[in-house]
Amino acid sequence: MLMSQRIGMVRRNQFLGSPVWVPPQQIRRQEQLKRAVRAPVAAISEDIIKANSKTAAAEKAVNFKVRAVVTVRNKHKEDLKETIVKQMDAFTDKIGRNVVLELISGDVDPKSKEPKRSKPAALRDWSKKSNLKAERVHYTAEFTVDSNFGVPGAITVSNKHQQEFFLESITIEGFACGPVHFPCNSWIQSKKDHPGKRIIFSNKLGFDFLANDEALEEQFRAC
After folding, report:
1. Does the pLDDT at position 127 exceed 50?
2. CB–CB of 154/202 below 8 Å?
3. Could you give the C-alpha distances from 156 to 24, 104, 202, 210, 212, in angstroms and in order?
């Protein structure tokens, strides 16, 4: 037993040992090495956070284009006065007195608490197609919306021409949900006779009627 106790004491003394003096220069070098090792890790972490934030921002700001196909039905017979006014409308359409559409989303903007709206877009090639004798004439308009716009629930129509026209339907193409149809089958009067915008609701919302701008605002606020 005495021998084993002595051997144990010798082993413990070997592990304890005497304190070793380390020069200050060596301590400073060790600290510099630790800093050099930690710095790249922190830089890489910051780069990853920045890259993720840029990716998230890019996903929120995606814009894409959609197209409206507008079907207008021509009159079977026109008198001389109507023909002259029609030619005047074809001319003034080139200088901004045209037919303007605006998309209204079924989703409400969380900031304004009102339905989201696109920028106005004018019908194209009205002047070029004014002399067509076909029963139905198709026009187009192009909108740019973002990925958070939602599905359009209504369209406003503003007729800046002097003469009314018969709007049969509007179809919006380009949304992920597929084509959105807006049946109308009604005359769109000139803005000088009907200053307010005409509203056409999508058949997906179950509205097949026209309303004025105030009625549209109340309807979408209730959504």
Report:
1. yes
2. yes
3. 80, 8, 11, 10, 9
How far, CA to CA in Å, does 139 sit from each of 69, 123, 189, 218?
Answer: 6, 6, 18, 30
Q: Report the alpha-carbon distance of residue 170 to residue 73 in Å, rounded.
A: 12
Q: DSSP letters of 122-158?
A: EPSSTTTTTT---SEEEEEEEEEEETTS--EEEEEEE
Q: What is the DSSP string of 34-99?
A: HHHHHHHHHHHHHHHHHHHHHHHHHHHT-EEEEEEEEEEEPPS---HHHHHHHHHHHHHGGGT-SE
Separation in Å, CA 216 to CA 30, 106, 153: 73, 11, 10
Among residues 124, 122, 139, 158, which one has the least CA distance to residue 74? Answer: 139
Tokens of 168: 């049969």
Mean pLDDT of the chain: 78
Distance between CA atoms of 96 and 87, rounded to whole angstroms?
15
Place of tokens 């000139």: 190
Q: How far apart are the C-alpha atoms of 168 and 189, rounded to whole Å?
A: 14
Rounded to an integer, the average pLDDT of 43-67 is 64
Backbone angles phi, psi at 175, to 5 degrees: -85, 155
pLDDT (0 to 100) of residue 76: 82
The whole-angstrom separation of Cα 47 and Cα 51 is 6
Q: How many CB atoms lie within 10 A of CB 186?
A: 15
The per-residue pLDDT for 74 is 92
pLDDT over 70 at 156, yes or no? yes
